[in-house]
Amino acid sequence: MSAEERLIRYCRIDTQSDESNEQETPSTRKQFDLAEVLLQELKELGLADAALDEHCYIYAHLPANTGRPCRTVGFIAHMDTAPDYSGTGVSPRIIRGFDGGDIALNPEVTMHMQDFPWMRQLKGKDLIVTDGTTLLGADDKAGITCIMEALSWWRCHPEAEHGTVAVAFTPDEEIGCGTRYFDLKKFGADFAYTMDGGQVSELSDETFNAASAKVSVQGFSIHPGEAKDRMINAASVAARIHSSLPDAKTPEHTSGHEGFLHLTGMSGNVEHAELTYILRDHDVARLEQQKQLLQAAVDYANLAAGTAAASVEFTDGYRNMKEVLEQHPEASAIAAQAMKELGITPAHEPIRGGTDGAELSFRGLPCPNLGAGGGNFHGRYEYCVIQELEQASEVVRRIAEIVSREA
């Protein structure tokens, strides 16, 4: 089975997670459909201890084949796909020798290069794309594929030396619950990598710091004909709060290390209204400034309304894994060395989001994130570059080889 065949096989299995199900892990039972396939493949590849637990976590270990003592390196990828777009009935197709022009996904949907100008750099490469009705699932089935391809290669090349390699496939990463039941002891790695990035050159050892906010507005509803100096329109107060926030702080106007305040939901009427936000910044002090900015908007709206109609509640989320990885620079250094030995120039990219590696790093497992060749995640325009998918598998193998040389 080739890398492209493997990825397409995995993508056809619907594993979409459900952000509304906060009580169960996995959030959808269909994630077990892929887990069972992977479990069987791992056993066929000789990983005798491969196991699937009740929460849909897979753990397996490729035993060392060198007599020298060396650290155990781990590789992690998630099985679920994003709730943002349908993962049912995925029908991938391959474009050989991409010509750099627009791609007609179906008669009604075209991927226009003016919307994705960076894709012109992929001219000449082979792409796996969607049929325009679903996402692809390269996030993160490309990560799973490059790990499985490495294991398959080692199976055929027992002469290639490596230490113990730990593998884990997880559920519910897309809804922020991928590490909820992750068993570090069972995984048993000294350090690891999440294979959950984009381009194969991507090497990320920093994430956003994350927080969420819920603004609640309690209004006073009365007949509009009798409302003068009496009505408090909760929906209007909520609109005033959001409109007082600067546009420059939204995701649409930020990039790189710039953080943002993102309105993710709004609902309400005269009696009651709610706004929900996510707050992100690579710098924790600037994240606190975002909280202060939102609080000031709420205070201003209350002042204008003449009463304490609105309140805001903040909840802190994941933290920037750079705090930990700065103390363990060897994990990133080994990945960079592996790329360079393969002729790939590492691109140190800050993750404008989170990763399971952030939480795992703070739990004691240094865990940078690496790319697996995908792009345009979470929607119908998602794609994967076959050549980069294959290179990502080579990066996995070369990292393990470098670690085996340490003794």
Description:
With 407 residues, the protein is an alpha+beta fold. The protein folds into two domains: 3-206 and 319-404, Aminopeptidase, CATH 3.40.630.10; 209-316, Alpha-Beta Plaits, CATH 3.30.70. It is built from ten helices and 18 strands. It has helices at 3-11, 31-44, 138-156, 184-187, 234-243, 284-305, 322-325, 329-341, 356-362, 386-404, and strands spanning 51-52, 58-62, 73-78, 93-95, 103-104, 110-111, 127-129, 165-170, 191-197, 202-204, 209-218, 260-268, 272-281, 310-316, 347-348, 369-371, 374-375, 383-385. It has an eight-stranded mixed beta sheet, covered by helices on one side. Strands 4-7-18-17 form a four-stranded antiparallel beta sheet. The protein has a four-stranded antiparallel beta sheet with strand order 12-13-11-14, covered by helices on one side. Strand 1 (51-52) and strand 2 (58-62) form a beta hairpin. It is globular, with a radius of gyration of 23 Å.
